[in-house]
Amino acid sequence: MKQATARFYYILVLCFILPSGNLFNIPIKMLLSVALMFSLIFLRNKILLDKISYLLVFVIVSLFLWAAISLANGYVETALQCIQSFLSMLLIIWLTWILYSNNIIQLKKVFCCFEIVAIGLIVFKFLCELVFLSGIISYDDFLSLFYKIFNTKLTSLHVKLGNISLYRIMITNDVLVLLFWSFYMIMDKKSLNKIILTIVMAFFCLLIFSRVYLVQYVLCLLVVVGISILKANKNRKKKFSTTNVLSIIIGLLGLIVVAILVLNSGIGKEIIDALYNRFFGTDADYSDSFRNEQYKYLMQGFLSSPIWGNGTGSYPVEYIRSEIAKYSYELEYLSFLYQFGILGFLFIIVTILYVVYKICFVSVKNKYIKYIVIFNLAIWAIKPFFNPGFLTSNSGILIAMVCICSKYCQQQIDKRKLINFK
User: pLDDT at residue 259 above 70?
Assistant: First the structure.
């Protein structure tokens, strides 16, 4: 049963290559999660619960306590929906921790599963763009087919570059690619592979065309370069450290050369204009206008009940961002303050942040791995200030990836299989 449980988890991780939890209206992720929970019943005598498990139980109990407030205020449907959203994230985190801490899953196999997910998402992104550019299927037909297969909508927009119309292709689990790439860049890989992957990731982020992802890409490069320089200064006799720094610098120079060539082709100005517009132009103003509206209504609701909040799943009825999840807003932390107040925010959100910190840093001793972990967790923790996504299974698997990748890298160091850290 132990091996079957591990296999269920490996398949669950691989399912995050899907844009949603459904495939042809079959709830794949939910079925696998139920199968995992059922298999753990048979292993209950071999599983030890620790402080992390009890803290997560405390969070769930708190959610139900604050649900009583929302029920009293009339938020019946959204209270249950919000609890379900929290559970979809917490369940992935808990399962990963329980299976890892009880030695049920193998780090190497989970790491390979995450690698397959990252590669699959990259390939999917570029194939979609090629389909659009080749005209094999129309844009509207593709979106309709995408919805029928995965039961979710594809976030997209047009970017006009001369006579070419590029399409922004964005799904919620794209961030997993950037996360895995950050760990890949500090591992023992050939310099050429790093250079190629750095360029591929640049195009990957351009296709997503998200301000958050573009900034995350640049920051990740700077963090990796900084780590490489620290290694080089610590051990100048090791050729790898110098090579590692040079590989990143060459990769950046390669990007600059490509940019210059593009500029000379006449399309470069349009690319720069598109990026400028995305960060500072009408596109940015349009996106930020929604956040300004949200801030006004959410802040008013929070100030009306700052200690206890308005209850789990509550929302300002005057302003609804989404009919599907009415409690979800770009200003996600502020929406949590609206729901839980200061006391509930400490009990629920801060406790979750503490749990994430604990499971991601346990057993990680190498300081360079810690830097990458801190970077990724900081990005994850900062995003809810201006983008939703905290309450999803993708958020849970992101934490699982940080947890597993950091421990796998540490395990490789301990076995002296990574030349970087010898």
Answer: no
Sequence-ordered list of residues with C-beta below 8 angstroms from that of 345, at least 6 positions apart, any chain: 309, 336, 337
Over residues 356-362, mean pLDDT: 94
Mind listing the pLDDT tens digit for each residue in 84-130?
999 999 999 999 999 999 999 999 999 999 999 999 999 988 888 88
- At 185-206, the pLDDT tens digits run 887 666 677 778 888 888 888 8
- Average confidence (pLDDT) over 213-226: 86
Q: What would the 3-class secondary structure string for 221-238 be?
A: HHHHHHHHHHHHHHCCCC
CA dihedral 197, 199, 202, 208 (to 10 degrees): -60
Q: What are phi and psi of 159, to 5 degrees?
A: -125, 115
Question: Which pTM value belongs to this model?
Answer: 0.85
Task: Using alpha carbons, select from 312, 362, 366, 352 the residue that is nearest to residue 336.
Answer: 312
For residue 173, the model assigns a pLDDT of: 87
What are the backbone dihedrals phi and psi of residue 162, each rounded to the nearest 5 degrees, phi first? 65, -125
The CA distance from 21 to 150, in Å, is 8
φ/ψ of 27, rounded to 5, equals -75, 80
Q: Are 291 and 234 in contact (CB under 8 A)?
A: no
Please give the pLDDT value at position 333: 95
Query: Could you write out the three-class secondary structure of the chain?
Result: CHHHHHHHHHHHHHHHHCCCCEECCEEHHHHHHHHHHHHHHHCHHHCCCCHHHHHHHHHHHHHHHHHHHHHHCCCHHHHHHHHHHHHHHHHHHHHHHHHHHCCCCCHHHHHHHHHHHHHHHHHHHHHHHHHHHHCCCCHHHHHHHHHHHHCCCCECCEEEECCEEEECCECHHHHHHHHHHHHHCCCCCCHHHHHHHHHHHHHHHHHHCCHHHHHHHHHHHHHHHHHHHHHHHHCCCCHHHHHHHHHHHHHHHHHHHHHHHHHHHCCHHHHHHHHHHHHHCHHHHHHHHHHHHHHHHHHHHHHHCCCCCCCCCCCCCCCCCCCCCCCCCCCHHHHHHHHHHHHHHHHHHHHHHHHHHHHHHCCCCCHHHHHHHHHHHHHHHHHHHCCCCCCCHHHHHHHHHHHHHHHHHHHHHHCCCCHHHC
Residues 6 or more apart whose Cβ sits within 8 Å of residue 24: 148, 149
What is the amino acid identity at position 344? Answer: G
- Considering only CA atoms, give the Rg of the chain: 22
